[in-house]
Design a protein that fits this description.
The chain is α+β, with helices and mostly antiparallel strands. It is 35% helix and 23% strand. The protein has a 6-stranded mixed sheet. It binds ligand DP6. The site of ligand DP6 has 15 residues, from α5.
Amino acid sequence: MRSEHRTTPVRSRERSTVTSATAVAHPNIALIKYWGKRDEHLVLPWTDSLSMTLDIFPTTTRVRLAPEAEHDEVTLDGVPVAGEARRRVVAFLELVRERAGLPQRAVVETENTVPTGAGLASSASGFAALAVAAASTYGLDLDATALSRLARRGSGSASRSIFGGFALWHAGRHTGTATDTDLSSYAEPVPAGGLDPALVIAVVDAGPKAVPSREAMRRTVETSPLYRPWAASSKDDLVGMREALRRADLDAVGEVAERNALGMHATMLAARPAVRYLSAATLTVLDSVLRLRRDGTPAYATMDAGPNVKVLCRRADAERVAEAVRGTVPGCSVHIAGPGPGARLLNEGG
Ligand code: DP6
């Protein structure tokens, strides 16, 4: 892991001098998945998860105070955001306003370079960038851990995008009576020494997902008989993953990541009604990953709330893996990502 991947977000400066701030954050891909909340409001997960932040697909978000406005204004790539997406951003701003004791509404302008809602972690980079920009604009002086807790409230996986490289999100204490002041659930960086990994991202379908991940997660926890066994085995997977990262053993990292992801999708397939994100194209890419492995190239797959496949391999093998994957599905676009930086403030305006 290069040193810039440990970048921690810049703290905000004095409240009176800042009326806008711009932040950038990158998506992360979980190698040990987060799937299932024990507290929907506080976004507290049942299990710990671990991810790699990418060096591609950044999200840039500017938050500007609008003292005269009655409502928040939210745009994505210049287009006003409505519905559930807007509701989530406004609820997040309410949280920030409450903490800051400042009632002003805001203008939130986001530029995304990743397809939104296609299981490519746009909510992770989105809420990580929003957390850093909004905290600064509203004058909250938060360190990286506190920003991770804050970003978590927008979207669970965003807690990990505050950090670069590899990050572990602690599920936190399971007290059964979690409150807003519970500080135990946040992400932190995990050293991955000599590992030189790449994630080859095969976008087989860039359209929005049929079932939003929030709803799919809830349904899985409530109805899938496989959920609890997966959550229990995910604890062992995390132990194996940390050990594999410590040894910089890419094959072990990949094996654990692949089985954890397939297990997560098994829990969804067993939900009632079933949630199936994996498509025929996904399985075709998975076949090509198996072929690569059989031919001696270490390559391991992971999938999130969508049909797209992320293939973990050595950076030195990434072009070859990308070539093998590209040929399998017509129209599939392939991107190569390495470990990327944590969320950071770009600038503040007076
Ligand atoms: C499959 O973080 O998008 O990508 O907390 O409801 O916003 P909410 O969910 P979100 O879920 C991500 C799920 C996943 C696995 C992962 O990133 O760990």
